[in-house]
Amino acid sequence: MLTGLHREATTVRTLFTLLFWDIIFTDGIIDVFYSQFQTNPLDLYTDNFYSSRREMIEQRLVVISESTDEVRQQCVSSYTYPVYPDGIEA
Protein backbone atom coordinates (compact mmCIF):
# COMPACT_ATOMS: atom_id res chain seq x y z
CA MET A 1 0.00 0.00 0.00
CA LEU A 2 1.28 3.45 -0.93
CA THR A 3 1.37 5.67 2.16
CA GLY A 4 3.14 8.77 0.88
CA LEU A 5 5.40 10.28 -1.71
CA HIS A 6 8.71 12.01 -1.32
CA ARG A 7 8.24 14.90 -3.76
CA GLU A 8 10.63 17.65 -2.55
CA ALA A 9 7.79 20.24 -2.83
CA THR A 10 7.29 19.61 -6.55
CA THR A 11 3.53 19.88 -6.14
CA VAL A 12 3.77 23.37 -4.67
CA ARG A 13 6.30 24.50 -7.28
CA THR A 14 4.13 23.11 -10.08
CA LEU A 15 1.03 24.90 -8.81
CA PHE A 16 2.97 28.14 -8.43
CA THR A 17 4.31 27.85 -11.97
CA LEU A 18 0.91 27.07 -13.49
CA LEU A 19 -0.87 29.86 -11.62
CA PHE A 20 1.80 32.51 -12.16
CA TRP A 21 3.38 31.51 -15.51
CA ASP A 22 2.61 34.77 -17.27
CA ILE A 23 3.86 36.78 -14.30
CA ILE A 24 7.07 34.76 -13.97
CA PHE A 25 7.90 35.31 -17.64
CA THR A 26 6.47 38.80 -18.03
CA ASP A 27 8.17 41.30 -20.33
CA GLY A 28 9.52 44.56 -19.03
CA ILE A 29 11.50 43.39 -16.02
CA ILE A 30 15.04 44.62 -16.66
CA ASP A 31 18.07 42.30 -16.51
CA VAL A 32 16.33 39.03 -15.72
CA PHE A 33 16.74 37.35 -19.11
CA TYR A 34 20.07 37.28 -20.89
CA SER A 35 19.67 34.16 -23.00
CA GLN A 36 16.90 32.36 -24.81
CA PHE A 37 18.13 29.19 -23.13
CA GLN A 38 17.28 30.29 -19.57
CA THR A 39 14.64 28.20 -17.87
CA ASN A 40 13.62 30.94 -15.45
CA PRO A 41 14.28 34.63 -14.78
CA LEU A 42 17.48 35.36 -12.88
CA ASP A 43 15.56 36.98 -10.03
CA LEU A 44 13.22 34.03 -9.40
CA TYR A 45 14.87 32.97 -6.13
CA THR A 46 15.55 36.48 -4.82
CA ASP A 47 13.60 39.11 -2.92
CA ASN A 48 13.59 41.19 -6.10
CA PHE A 49 11.24 38.73 -7.80
CA TYR A 50 8.32 39.72 -5.60
CA SER A 51 9.15 43.42 -5.40
CA SER A 52 9.43 43.80 -9.17
CA ARG A 53 6.11 41.97 -9.78
CA ARG A 54 4.25 42.89 -6.62
CA GLU A 55 1.19 44.48 -8.23
CA MET A 56 0.71 41.60 -10.70
CA ILE A 57 1.13 38.98 -7.96
CA GLU A 58 -1.30 40.74 -5.62
CA GLN A 59 -3.90 40.99 -8.41
CA ARG A 60 -3.52 37.29 -9.22
CA LEU A 61 -3.94 36.33 -5.56
CA VAL A 62 -7.19 38.32 -5.44
CA VAL A 63 -8.46 36.54 -8.56
CA ILE A 64 -7.55 33.15 -7.07
CA SER A 65 -9.13 33.91 -3.70
CA GLU A 66 -12.35 35.22 -5.27
CA SER A 67 -12.72 32.43 -7.81
CA THR A 68 -15.61 30.03 -7.50
CA ASP A 69 -15.41 26.26 -7.35
CA GLU A 70 -16.76 26.18 -10.93
CA VAL A 71 -13.90 28.35 -12.22
CA ARG A 72 -11.31 26.28 -10.38
CA GLN A 73 -12.81 23.07 -11.77
CA GLN A 74 -12.64 24.50 -15.31
CA CYS A 75 -8.96 25.27 -14.78
CA VAL A 76 -8.23 21.77 -13.53
CA SER A 77 -10.24 20.05 -16.26
CA SER A 78 -8.50 22.06 -19.00
CA TYR A 79 -5.14 20.52 -18.04
CA THR A 80 -4.23 17.48 -20.10
CA TYR A 81 -1.67 14.95 -19.01
CA PRO A 82 1.31 14.60 -21.32
CA VAL A 83 1.79 11.45 -23.33
CA TYR A 84 5.40 10.42 -23.69
CA PRO A 85 6.82 9.11 -27.00
CA ASP A 86 6.54 5.49 -25.91
CA GLY A 87 2.81 5.97 -25.36
CA ILE A 88 2.91 5.80 -21.56
CA GLU A 89 0.85 8.52 -19.94
CA ALA A 90 2.29 10.56 -17.07
Please characterize this protein's 3D structure:
This protein is mostly helical. It has one domain (10-77). 49% of the residues lie in helices and 0% in strands. The protein has three helices and no strands. It starts with 9 loop residues before the first helix and ends in a 13-residue tail after the last helix. The model has no long low-confidence stretch (mean pLDDT 82).
Question: What's the structural blueprint in terms of helices and strands?
Answer:
Elements (H helix, E strand, L loop, with lengths): L9 H15 L22 H20 L2 H9 L13
Radius of gyration, in angstroms, nearest whole number: 16 Å
State the distance separating the first and last CA atoms. Answer: 20 Å
Helix content: 40-55%
Fraction in beta strands: under 5%
Low-confidence stretches: none
Count of discrete alpha- or pi-helical segments spanning 4 or more residues: 3
What is the typical, i.e. mean, pLDDT? 82
Number of strands: 0
Please identify the oligomeric state: single chain
* Coarse structural class: mainly alpha
Summarize the structure.
By secondary structure, the protein is an all-alpha fold. The chain has three helices and no strands.
